[in-house]
Design goal:
The protein is α/β, with parallel strands linked by helices and 247 residues long. Helices cover 41% and strands 14% of the residues. It has seven helices and seven strands, in the order βαβαβαβαβαβααβ. It binds NADP nicotinamide-adenine-dinucleotide phosphate. Belongs to the short-chain dehydrogenases/reductases (SDR) family.
Length: 247
């Protein structure tokens, strides 16, 4: 792979499994040193770190619950401190809390908004203090913010749609500093939270134009493009990697 990110440092939240792990590895293959956060599973985080080191990059794993604002900011600052700089922030960690509208409680609301809205906001705020011209912020949203095909998604869809406003407003505000801000909205992607052999997978796949799930690497490819120099004129944009789910 073309090492377009040589000399760059990236942070991927929720990088120990699924889409985040694929993004972390792909950024490393493109030459970046990569830090990742995780919530619980240290062995899986360590495994991703080992795989990044195997392709020649430096890597660290940081336990940081995205629901904990202090931990999020501390993780960003630690990356800049330990790896020497911060060029790319990928807001990937997400809460996937579904439920019938009238059954969703205040704790569900607060947890979802803390992880899916507050964490990307404050991580970006902390990251731009370290970023220079060429900095990149990429957030992982969701197809469900664009097309609500199932009941039970009110909280999740609401929280993910907030990323459109954040992306556009930040893209506008940070453009003058040469920092781009973009959103990638995956469709059904084969991970632990939405397995391609899960009980509703056939129905879900039926809503796509391509008729199948994405692999995490499909989402990682779009993120890596946005993180690289060829995307220097792309900001405030949303890329749907959803197999046509939203068309
Ligand atoms: N999969 C899909 O079909 C799909 C579709 C649209 C959008 N998305 C979005 O894509 C993103 C990644 O989803 P995924 O399917 O790859 O998830 P996943 O396979 O369940 O992986 C979740 C990752 O995030 C970490 N994580 C979970 N909660 C966290 C928290 N509170 N703080 C820090 N890290 C946390 C996990 O760490 P531990 O291992 O330590 O728990 C793990 O590394 C999410 O924002 C999701 O909403 C996914």
């Amino acid at each position: 792979m073309n090492r377009v990110l040589d000399g760059k440092v990236a942070l991927v939240t929720g990088g120990s499994r699924g889409i985040g792990a694929a993004v972390a590895l792909r950024l490393a293959e493109a030459g970046a040193d990569v830090a990742l956060t995780f919530q619980q599973d240290q062995p899986r985080a360590d495994d991703v770190v080992d795989r990044i080191k195997a392709v020649g990059g430096r890597a660290i794993a940081i336990r940081a619950d995205s629901a904990d604002a202090t931990a999020v900011v501390a993780a960003v600052d630690r990356v800049a401190d330990e790896l020497g700089r911060l060029d790319v922030l990928v807001n990937n960690a997400g809460a996937f809390l579904l439920g019938e509208f009238e059954q969703l409680g205040m704790a569900d609301f607060d947890q979802t908004v803390a992880i899916n809205v507050r964490a990307p906001f404050i991580a970006a705020q902390a990251a731009v203090r370290h970023m220079t011209e060429g900095g990149r912020i990429v957030t992982i949203g969701s197809n469900m913010a664009e097309r609500a095909v199932f009941p039970g998604f009110s909280l999740y869809a609401m929280s993910k749609s907030a990323m459109t406003g954040l992306t556009k407003a930040l893209g506008r505000e940070l453009g003058v500093r040469g920092i781009t801000v973009n959103l990638v909205n995956p469709g059904p992607t084969d991970t632990d939270s939405n397995p391609a052999d899960g009980p509703n997978a056939d129905v879900i796949r039926g809503f796509t134009a391509l008729g199948h799930y994405a692999e995490p690497a499909d989402v990682a490819a779009a993120v890596t493009f946005l993180a690289g120099p060829e995307a220097r004129y792309v900001t405030g944009a949303t890329i749907n990697v959803d197999g046509g789910f939203t068309i």
